[in-house]
């Protein structure tokens, strides 16, 4: 990845917390500001003009997902899409990993409480990986769907989507939370029935941005329980009657989203398109390799996989003899921003992260030896 990608961003070199939040590009910030300024000077053309950003964002999202606008819908966040999916399953058992981020738990718990479906909790090993073998062992005739994160938030374990599809077969739904991988990992999103992601992390679009892509199978099998007034046919006809859900992914719309944040989303997605996901992925992988070697040199115990086939942009580790909070203090002193958990630390670089960050991390860990 050339330095020109980094030229679009102002995040400090030591920022290694993209798995939590990705500081937006200058283009995204400028687009957000322009849209907000336009809204402050509103006239009869303003609202329709601003909403054009939603169309462009949907088109860009569809292109990056290898889909089209008929199968793509904008959402304010990942959780909204997961609730749409969970409440849309009419009956049966859904396989879900117990080690998933909580946003992947509550939709299925609520669905069970409402009698929509039943969650069967998978128990991955220490690496947190949902493997084909784990899924195969849990399959029974009543299983109608598998819900999985493309990349595990704790360890960065990257699932094999194609292999998971093969295991569950063509008739069960594959529902994928892509927030820790979309835009930085070239994965076969087309094998999934539902791909949902937020834009505030690796896509670097800011909060309240996101989208879902639905397959024809998902449109057929998932009931549009949460369809709102903007997700129906004849949306502009206010006749007091209930309208049928839209025939496409638009049925997952509940109400109008913010065209201001959509403007930021467009700009962010277009940066990804310009530099391409494979190039971004290669740059992230290079930093992860360097950081892995460095933390190992200072005695870290890795929680993340080292196999390139299952490795993404997350490096989680512990440092024996040192509490994570103390290690974080040392990293902060050198200008490094990690994710700090009670039991571990997580480093997540992006393609804009320069190689000099490795020296910053090394200096911080070296200070703990004195």
Record field, number of beta strands: 11
Major beta sheet summary? 7 strands, mixed
- Indicate the multimeric state: single chain
Name the strands of the widest sheet in spatial order: 1-7-6-5-4-2-3
Indicate the overall shape. globular
Helix coverage percent: 25-40%
**Helix and strand sequence:** HHHHEHEHEHEHEEEHHHEEHEEH
Distance between the termini: 36 Å
Q: What's the alpha carbon Rg, rounded to whole Å?
A: 21 Å
Give a brief outline of the structure:
With 370 residues, the chain is an alpha/beta fold. The chain has helices at residues 3-6, 26-40, 46-50, 52-65, 78-88, 106-113, 132-138, 161-168, 216-221, 259-275, 277-297, 324-333, 356-367; strands spanning 72-74, 93-97, 118-122, 143-149, 173-177, 194-198, 210-214, 301-302, 315-318, 339-340, 345-347.
Task: Please write out the topology.
Layout: H1 3-6, H2 26-40, H3 46-50, H4 52-65, E1 72-74, H5 78-88, E2 93-97, H6 106-113, E3 118-122, H7 132-138, E4 143-149, H8 161-168, E5 173-177, E6 194-198, E7 210-214, H9 216-221, H10 259-275, H11 277-297, E8 301-302, E9 315-318, H12 324-333, E10 339-340, E11 345-347, H13 356-367
Parallel strand pairs: 2-3, 2-4, 4-5, 5-6
Antiparallel strand pairs: 1-7, 6-7, 8-9, 9-11, 10-11
Helix pairs in contact: 2-10, 4-10, 5-6, 7-8, 11-13, 12-13
Structure description:
A 7-stranded mixed sheet has the order 1-7-6-5-4-2-3, with helices on both faces. The protein starts with a helix and ends with a helix. The longest helix is centred in the last third of the chain and has 21 residues. The protein is 37% helix and 12% strand. It is an alpha/beta fold and 370 residues long. It has 13 helices and 11 strands. Helix 4 packs parallel to helix 10, helix 5 packs parallel to helix 6 and helix 7 packs parallel to helix 8.
